[in-house]
Amino acid sequence: MSDERIPIDRLLDLVEGTLPEDEAARLEATLDEADRREVAVQAAVRAVLGQLPGPELSDDERQRLRAAVRAELRVEEADPAPSGGRSVRRSWLARALPSAAAAATVVAVIAVAINLVGGTDSLQETPMAEVEAAATAEAAVVTAAPAPAAEASEEYADSAEPVATVTTIAMVEEAAAARAVEAEDAAPAAEAAAEAEMMMEEEAMAEAPAAELDAALADEAYEAVQMAAEAAAEPSDAALLGPGYVAFEVATDPPEDARAMLEMVEELIAVVEAAPVPVAELADLAGEEGLVCWQGAADLAGADGVILWMAPGLVDGVAGEAYLVVPGPEDRPGTGVLALFVYPDCRAVALRAVTDE
Amino acid sequence: MSTRHDSATADDSVLIRRYLAGDGRAFDQLMAAHEARVFAISLRILRDREEALDATQETFITVLRKAGSFEGRSAFSTWLYRVAVNTCYTMLRKKGRRPTAPLPDAHDPPDLSATDRFRSAELRPMLEDALATLPEEFGPAVLLSDLEGLPLQSVAEILEIPLGTVKSRVFRGRKLLAEHLGNLMAASGYPIEDEQ
């Protein structure tokens, strides 16, 4: 075959016209009949595909799409609202949890994760300013207006109810502090929570610059997360928290750097406790189970109480993800833990959530 | 040549900063700049309009949520399209299906008189079907390169694979397509590989 005589990439360069003229001429001179035909076929397919008109969004689809993304991200409408009567698209994530509760939970998770990490200088700068200012805003939104009613057509909406506990940062901090006090060896976490409370008051008033974590910060945060994970080895006991509280703790296996962790934590809804599970098993089981909602997880739980599902790619550049859901005990409906695994390394984001209505 | 690309990248960076600062118009501009292509990529991978819309929605939500961590090391569009491709294939895997459609045994073009046969409404589905038969290994490379017209280097960045691998995948993907489209291309006067 011609491939064996002239490397494919060289032939492709010729087809693409990316070679300098003289080099292209030299290469062409070396082509035999099979090579020439190969090049011609390549060029023909390229030309055919290049002529194929692309699919287009209709005006209605475009408006629905933008409205859905805008709603999910809570972006203010720049222009007058589009004509009424159109449904807003809802992503699977929105179906899984009311968005306000999800946003509050996510922000709370970030805040607590960072709070548990404790106060290195660099941690207290931009990330805290950003996250906590956002957290305050999000918590205020949720407190003022609890999770929006789900659309009737969305099967997942109602089922998310148990997790839609209204959560404020203060509540989360209080919960973290309570747990820290309770655990004899959890002094660092309590200290971190108290310190975080002070920082939050300061930072919430500050501007939230859109700064990025630098590598040094990531390293520091990662180390701190590991320390926090050890400090939070005690299982969570939601019964101590009282109604309406959500406790989060760093549990196991943080990802390789804090930047990645923070990015993934942003995507979590209610969270995590997990030990590594073989990726292949996760993928197979997830495919069999399909997407399930939070409450549905309890219904679908097998004898081991474990449900797996896959979610569309939330972490860019990663081959895939799977969620592991472990529903809580029967007498505690709506409680449970959820873990995010990121392929191909199958690292679990190490957070856990237990809700108690 | 790269000026337009660089300029688009710079524009995107500005729009992202404005979006992060709460400018709703920047959101609209970012969407307007990229939604059509993200949707096109999604539809060509998923072959289902509603699913493609879901994927497009999910892609923008994912990317814009993380816009604060965008460092500008590569073009925003590169990041966006990467998320789009990953989202689509994750959706496909989740459903445990490939977007394949059986090809007819023969591909006699129904409208040979069409000036541009490949714009002919009758032929387009065949081409789309043929594209859908490409394995995941080759499909995205061919799609991004030949249908979306992206430079191979950009395709490499989007798919996060070496340039040489992209070239190989595009080459082999086209070859597979040529085989699928054999009769169609022969009837249209395009050269056709007769071995295999």
Order of helices and strands of chain A: HHHHHHHHHHHHEHHHEEEEE
Parts with pLDDT < 50 across at least 5 consecutive residues of chain A: 80-194, 196-329, 333-357
**Would you count the extended β strands of chain B for me?**
0
Total helical elements of chain A: 15
Oligomeric state of shown chains: heterodimer
Number of strands of chain A: 6
Largest sheet entry of chain A: 4 strands, antiparallel
**Order of strands across the biggest sheet of chain A?**
2-3-4-5
Beta percentage of chain B is under 5%
Shape summary of chain A: globular
| Overall shape of chain B | globular
Overall helicity of chain A: 40-55%
Summed over residues and divided by their number, the pLDDT of chain A gives a mean of 45
Mean pLDDT of chain B: 76
What's the helix-strand series of chain B? HHHHHHHHH
Structural class of chain A: alpha+beta
Distance separating the two termini of chain B: 39 Å
- Please tell me how large the radius of gyration of chain B is: 18 Å
The value of Rg of chain A in angstroms is 25 Å
The residue ranges of chain B in which pLDDT falls below 50 over 5 or more consecutive positions are 1-5, 99-120, 190-196
Number of helices of chain B: 9
Please characterize this protein's 3D structure.
The complex is a heterodimer of chains A (357) and B (196). Chain A has 357 residues and is of the alpha+beta class. Chain A has 15 helices and six strands. In chain A, the strands form two sheets. A four-stranded antiparallel β-sheet of chain A has the order 2-3-4-5. Chain A has a two-stranded antiparallel ribbon with strand order 1-6. In chain A, helix 10 packs antiparallel against helix 11. Chain A is globular. Chain A starts with a helix and ends with a strand. Helix content of chain B is 66%, strand content 0%. The termini of chain B are far apart. The N terminus and C terminus of chain B are likely disordered. At the A-B interface, helix 2, helix 4, helix 5, helix 13 and helix 14 of A face helix 1, helix 2, helix 3, helix 4 and helix 5 of B.
